[in-house]
Design goal:
By secondary structure, the protein is mostly beta strands. It has one helix at 62-65; strands spanning 6-11, 16-18, 32-37, 46-48, 51-56, 70-75, 82-88, 103-110, 113-121, 130-137, 146-148, 151-153, 158-161, 165-173, 179-182.
Length: 183
């Protein structure tokens, strides 16, 4: 509707999170239509629990954007699990799969641990890319300690909010398998 500043949204049965704040959607919103704010400068965007979304900061051009580091948003389901994947190629060629000129990573989070499996590392451009942030939504308790590939993460690199949102500032190559553990 022209000029509308709100929109009616249906939330199927699942755990949902506000993309911008990481806050859990109220239980009363599940399996019903709910009116949410939709200002002109912000798209109402929600993440379904159980999924891992790779993200990359935008830039002025696609070429510049493709150089930016990656983050992962891990939106946990009610059982504390999530999965996702990242496919990356040169962004131009039409035959990258046939020529196996791509990068493919699969992510799995369960038992308070993230594991990455590098399924295919056939794109040379992926070697220069890095992860810089991991955000976990829906934690039921604050971790006592966090490790990435056997090394402790602490101090300003770790931020936890009472809402169950954990933000980890990291630096790891995109082509490195991640093994993250929350204790």
């Amino acid at each position: 509707m022209k000029g509308a500043r709100s929109v009616s949204v249906y939330f199927p049965e699942a755990q949902w999170f506000d993309y911008y704040t990481g806050l859990k959607v109220p239980s009363a919103w599940k399996k019903t239509y709910t009116t949410v704010s939709a200002p002109l400068n912000k798209i109402p965007l929600y993440i379904r629990g159980g999924y891992i979304l790779p993200q990359q900061a935008p830039a002025t051009t696609t070429t510049e954007s493709r150089l930016n580091p990656f983050g992962l948003i891990i939106a946990l389901d009610e059982e504390g699990q999530a999965s996702g994947s990242l496919f990356w190629d040169d962004g131009d060629s039409i035959d990258t799969i046939e020529k196996e000129n791509y990068f493919l990573a699969k992510y799995t989070f369960s038992n308070r641990s993230l594991k990455t499996e590098i399924v295919k590392n056939g794109y040379p451009g992926a070697e220069t890319l890095k992860y810089n942030k991991i955000t976990i939504l829906g934690l039921k308790r604050r971790p006592q300690a966090v490790s990435l590939n056997g090394r402790s993460i602490r101090g300003e690199a770790v931020s936890y909010e009472i809402s169950g949102k954990l933000v980890l500032r990291i630096s790891a190559p995109l082509t490195q398998e991640l093994n993250l553990k929350l204790y």
